[in-house]
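User: Run a structure prediction on this.
Assistant: Running it now.
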Amino acid sequence: MKISILAIAITGAASAGLENGDFNGGNIGWNVFNGAGIYDYAGNPSVPFESNALATWGAFTGGVGYSGAGQDIAAGTWSEGDTIHYGANAFVENQLFADNIGYVALNFFGADGNWWFNHTTDNVDNSDMDGETHQFANSITLDAGAASAARIEFVIIFYQPWHDESGSGSIIWDDAYANVVPAPGALALLGLAGLAGRRRRRN
């Protein structure tokens, strides 16, 4: 899902799942790989971000290539019925070559380390090269299978399906987030617990 730069209001007792989502701490919390790096864009008039942001470009691996940055959502912060809202702001700095795209994803892994499946936002492509910043966001409500994942990874991807050394283009990202919102039943229980606590204090 691609939406405007206006902020999304997340209701409920959300748990922040990412460290250093604004990249102002540099690489802290992030595994940056292949054609990607975190840079300070303060004072750069061609980029709409005012401080650190993640730049991604082609991996140039000779075939299908992936670049970007990822980190695991804090273990134990999700349960069945919870919803994870996730995304990031994207700016297409240079025209994307051929079929190159970008996207944000959640990767789900089992206890044996094997990848199960992913859940993604819409793709960033050349239609987004309009001098504006766009927010790419999505959400997933965890069923029993997804909630049983041993590991959930948030990842920002620049995907290069092929290349002939002529270029890749680039996408700059900022304000990454992954918020875990408890299921409505869990929120109700939290509310009841709060009421019981207030009653005890009054007594």
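The chain has one domain: 15-202.
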